Amino acid sequence: MNLDTLLYKKDFNREELVFLLSLEGEEMKRLLDRALDVKIREIGNEVYLRGLIEYSNRCVKSCLYCGVRSGNEKVVRYTLSDEEVLDCAKKAIDMQYGSLAIQSGERRDMAFTEKITYLLKEIKSLSDGKLGITLSCGEQTEDVYREWFDAGAHRYLLRIESSDEKLYYKIHPNDKTHNFRTRLNALDSLSSIGYQVGTGVMIGLPFQSIENLADDLLFFKDINVAMVGMGPFIPHGDTPLYEYRGLIQDDRTRLNMTLKMIACLRLLMPRINMVAATADQTLSPNGREEAVMAGANVIMPNLTPNKYREEYMIYPNKACVGDKPEECQHCLDNRMKSINHTIGYNKWGDSKAFTN
Ligand code: SF4
What we know:
By secondary structure, this protein is α/β, with parallel strands linked by helices.
C-alpha cells in the first residue's frame, strides 16, 4: 500500500484503515500531520469547550471496566444538589465556556429523568438560552430522550465502547441491562429525535484487535455521527477487567493508537467534532495537546465541585482532578496557544458536519 496515495484519499476500506493504524515512527507522524492539515482546512484551529458536570455516580449498570459500576462497594455515592449544578452552570457562563456537558451514571427512574428535565430548563433559563448542553446519561426510552431534547439538550453522547458485539460482551456483562442491540437502538432514537449524536470507543482494550478498531471507524461513518469521544483504556483496580491488564500494551502505545484513531477519523469524517479526552492527558502530560494536533477539536474542562471528583473515577489517576475551574481555564488557554490553536469562547461549537 502506498502511504502517499492513501493520505490523500477521502474514503477508506478496512484494509486501508488497518494499514494506517499500524504505522509507526516517521510514517505515523505523517498521518497525524495530514489529519491536522485536513482539520485546519475543514473546520479551522478553534477548540470548543464543554464545561463538564459529573452529576451523579449512582448507576444501575456494572460495566466491567468502570470504577463507578454498581458492583463497586468502595465508591461513596453522590448526586449533586440542584444548587451545585446551577453553580457549575454559572461558572461556565462566567468563564465563557459556551457549552456544558452533563454526565451521569445511568438511572432510568422517574425521579432521575424528571430531575434532569428540570435542571435543563433551569440552566437554559439562567443562561438566557446561551449555554449549549450535551447530555451523557446513558440509555433511556425514546420518550425520555425527547423530553430532554424539548427541555434544551441538543447534543447527546452515548459511547458504544466497541462496535464489535463479541468484544462488547467481553467488557460488559451479557444480560438484559447491558444489551448491545439496545445501545444501537438508543443511538438510532437519538438521531431520529434530532440530537447531534456522539459515540465513541475505548482504545487498547484487552481482547481488542487492530481490525476491531478499523471497524469502529467504519461504524462511526456508517451511522453518520456528529461527534466522537474516544480515548485510551486505563485499567481500574476495582473492576473485573483489571484481571486482564497483562494483555494490554504499554501507556505510550495505547496513546499512540488513540492518536492514530483520531487522525484516521479526521480523514474519514473531516467536519465532525472530536474530543481530546482527559484520559489522553492521564497517560501523558501533553496527551490532550497531542490529540488536538492529531485532529481533535473539543476539550471538556471539569466543573464538578472538587470534593466529588475522586468519586467519579471511571478510570484511575484522572488528570486535573485537583485543579480549580479557574486554574483550568488559564492552563487550557496557554496550552492551546502553545500549539497554535485558539479557544472558541462563548460558542456552542456545534459539529460542522451536523450543521451542514
Ligand atoms: S460506564 Fe457508565 S453505565 Fe457503565 S457502570 Fe460506568 S457509569 Fe455506569
